[in-house]
Amino acid sequence: xxxxxxxxxxxxxxxxxxxxxxxxxxxxxxxxxxxxxxxxxxxxxxxxxxxxxxxxxxxxxxxxxxxxxxxxxxxxxxxxxxxxxxxxxxxxxxxxxxxxxxxxxxxxxxxxxxxxxxxxxxxxxxxxxxxxxxxxxxxxxxxxxxxxxxxxxxxxxxxxxxxxxxxxxxxxxxxxxxxxxxxxxxxxxxxxxxxxxxxxxxxxxxxxxxxxxxxxxxxxxxxxxxxxxxxxxxxxxxxxxxxxxxxxxxxx
Length: 252
Known about the structure:
By secondary structure, this protein is an alpha/beta fold. It is built from nine helices and 15 strands. The strands form three sheets. A nine-stranded mixed sheet has the order 3-2-1-6-11-8-12-14-15, sandwiched between helices. The chain has a four-stranded mixed sheet with strand order 7-13-9-10.
């Protein structure tokens, strides 16, 4: 068994739909799901989940170092995964976790996502995966310079005070894994994850490039990561530290 933790944005409009779709899909994996921040209180209560509010914040946004530290204390399981709050998990995660954990005492599991159009609430009493897979067929596989999943066996290294939902911190995680000799395991071939296309900013109308250039928290993440140099799967591979899980087999 394993645990998934995350923090949510305010449950408003399409963001509420995206996040509820995501959280309910995590529950379908059989994982323990832990949410942090007052924004998650209502959905946690409705779905019978644990929600903790005591997380450190930067300009109102939870700090990732606080989230990761709290999750490693609060989770029931030693295998723990952080998920970005709007990413739907379709299949393969439980099997991937079992396979990798049985063969590696220490690892950082990552996964690329499919970017799709999905603004409607999923019907989890029916065949909800059929609709998502149809959208995936029309979608696009995201860059290998990012991951919306970071799953590990605790204890993990201490994070810097990055803020989620902004770039650079996932690249820093890739680099830190290499720096500490922790194998990075790409499970994209076995785990299907989907991310709804959406706008940015307080009203959701800002495009991603503008948001990345104008957000102070983006600049803070960039400064913390060491200057904004992307560290992608190809860099991990060049250091001999990238593993892939394909057809139940781990290859380096």
